Write the structure tokens for this entry.
Amino acid sequence: MVDQESNSSLADTVSILAKRYGDRTALVQGARSLSYESLAAASARLAHAFRVRGVAPGDQVGIALRDGMDHMTALFALWMLDAVAVPIDFRTRAEERVRLAEEFDLAFMLEDRDLGGGAYPSLVWDGEFAELVARQSATAPDRDPSAGHPAAISLTSGTTGRPAGIVMSHGDLIGRCLGGLVPVDGVSVSAGGRFLNAYPLSFSASRHHSLRHLLIGATILFHPPTFGALELAERVRKDNITFLFAVPATVAAMLDAVGEGDEPYLPMLETLYCGGSGMSAEDKLRAYRRLTPGFLHCFSASLSGTVSILAGEDVLKRPDTEGRVRPNVSVEIVDDEDRPVPHGQVGVLRVRSVGMASHLYRGRDRAAGDRIRNDWAYTGDLARLSEDGFLTVVGRTSDLIIRGGANVHPGEVEAAISRRAGVRDVAVIGYPDPALGEEIAAFVVTDGSIGEAELSAHCRIELQPDKRPRRFILLDALPRNANGKVLRTELRTRL
């Protein structure tokens, strides 16, 4: 698979950063650290070791490492060989690794230990491999600048089916990282700074924020991926963190952990960048007031990158939206025939942006989303756009509920239920009904002060009859993946 779009490479970028920032600290994990110079040298040694073990240009290599610093070094090392990185969650079980190795034609799986038992080619980062790396040259290996292989295949979350592979060229990835530096009101994009990364680099947002911060000479501190909310907040205070990325579930847990107060708990935090899934208007307001006025919520998609941002005074004025569409992004809301719909009307979201993905792996487009057509990225979301450029996402096309011929968007029902005092979390799905085609079920997490009767009475006030859930299922917590997205397939099995 060859990408002819661009000969630029992130392998060149790490060398440029080493010359620009020299001995400035780039990465920190526990007691270990790497300067920008030593990051380039460590990546070069690792690239030579990969070549010794048989990695060749164009090879697709899974990276399933727990250690964020090693994962980052492995990315640059593979790019120095013109190989293709396929980041994989280190928590993935053996049987799933076998499936991913087959589905994405992996030449190797780089991992902390061989979980496959020979079912796929494993490249284990153990003591023996570390010794091999240490013996290699710190000078980057020679490479063919015209090779043009993609930089990475980013796997989607797989919450509604098998993961799709988003193919990113080096130009796509560089464009996406640089595009994230376009100034937006209420967003700090100052050079340098300290980024606390609390999520595995298999999560595309975590990876892209890390690369973006390296481009501006920041220091990235990797936090253990298993953490408590209060622990994370205290780490921000202790280490003078200026930038933190967190999913909405983590932000909500931080709010509960720090409790009420009149002053921001994290005043030194210039930017609390929240994304990865939907967030209630109440939690957005609480985060802005109680955690930091540098709070922002974004809507992003794997195919296109960040589409819109809610930040600054907009958080107070329009917390029910995903914010303003970014100035370097084009958005259209269209019907099933790809005709633009009027402002305020719900339709299918499509996007053009700097850093938009090249294509999906082996053309595995999805009819209900995650597809590219006529240079538009169809993200699989249903949304509406106001005349003044505020985007509101109401659900996934695959989650649309058709009840008795009426379209019901789960996001609108969830927003209505979340307005009831005592509701902490909610997810709405459809389930088969012989009379109406589909019925509506709401899975709700409460603080214990309300039950099904109160929820039903609230929905009779807030929602039209055809949008009211017919079943309420109370849970202690919604099932979510490591990135904070609700596992709707798991909820459906409970019905």
